Amino acid sequence: xxxxxxxxxxxxxxxxxxxxxxxxxxxxxxxxxxxxxxxxxxxxxxxxxxxxxxxxxxxxxxxxxxxxxxxxxxxxxxxxxxxxxxxxxxxxxxxxxxxxxxxxxxxxxxxxxxxxxxxxxxxxxxxxxxxxxxxxxxxxxxxxxxxxxxxxxxxxxxxxxxxxxxxxxxxxxxxxxxxxxxxxxxxxxxxxxxxxxxxxxxxxxxxxxxxxxxxxxxxxxxxxxxxxxxxxxxxxxxxxxxxxxxxxxxxxxxxxxxxxxxxxxxxxxxxxxxxxxxxxxxxxxxxxxxxxxxxxxxxxxxxxxxxxxxxxxxxxxxxxxxxxxxxxxxxxxxxxxxxxxxxxxxxxxxxxxxxxxxxxxxxxxxxxxxxxxxxxxxxxxxxxxxxxxxxxxxx
Length: 395
Prior knowledge:
Layout: H1 2-16, H2 18-28, H3 40-49, E1 56-61, H4 70-77, H5 79-93, E2 97-102, H6 107-122, H7 133-136, E3 143-148, H8 158-165, E4 189-193, H9 194-198, H10 200-206, H11 208-212, E5 222-229, E6 235-240, H12 245-252, E7 257-262, E8 268-271, H13 281-286, E9 295-300, H14 305-319, H15 325-343, H16 350-367, H17 371-375, H18 378-387
Parallel strand pairs: 1-2, 1-4, 2-3, 5-9
Antiparallel strand pairs: 5-6, 7-8, 7-9
Helix pairs in contact: 1-5, 2-3, 2-5, 4-5, 4-6, 5-6, 14-15, 15-16
């Protein structure tokens, strides 16, 4: 049944043409679900209008943010939807080759996607002549190649992902130029994560009005939330944008909530007094938080903040690619500071150490090349400011 479904959606995209698909995606208000929340239609339009060829489509399935597992579920449970969405996106922007860069720790997803690609190619949904000239009249070409990552968090950053695909060390590149101009192999490239691409299917199938009937004007549609931590029912929840955090936590069976980490290790903490926060891009931004990759990590009154923050600091220290000094040195010094504060062995007073932690975070935000260094201190600083972390740390 999914193979037949695949044929229907790809045929629909071919019959309506690239201009229609681009217009629908733009009018839907769809934005990236990986954390940056960049308008998808604008990105696709830029690549479609680029005169340079060839063009590429990259599906970023290197889902490495701690606490995130939405893309894994989508790939394992409905790999044909991923293939279908990539094909539609590739045909819309004029890309003849797509790459799906999948996290190395997802062997089941890799196997199921590999099977889906093989079946789609055998049935004529991928390759030299998608669905045949007699159906589309266009002789459109698009194919997908799977590439497996090696467990580097930094390769979730799009330009580091390009470097890895090209056979080089995964290190970010300075922007501009942006990927829509100079991307993979120096060509115009569309990069979207799995959840973003799969959202294209209901937009194309049901129309913009139906899609925008869910959510809010500023955040239309639905969102996948990865709920974990101190909850009775951890898992993946799909809800319309605008649902209150308290409603999501009630569904997950959260009790005695002390705080919630939104967005993962690169996200921010929300206090127990902020649980009525609507989960939209605009509302979380106004509250000084972020939806990020959809992580909702719940803490209760039995959780100690110090060890959790130390683990976050250690994660960024380990995952920094080391290319730029602010991140390479800053993440090490941050981890040392958090360890000292956690153990109560400060150099000077705890207040001085907390001030140094804030200064260090500011330097990393201002001077790091990519988002890893720029957000490495976000969760830690929000815990200090909102949750009173390290207030009682001694010498």
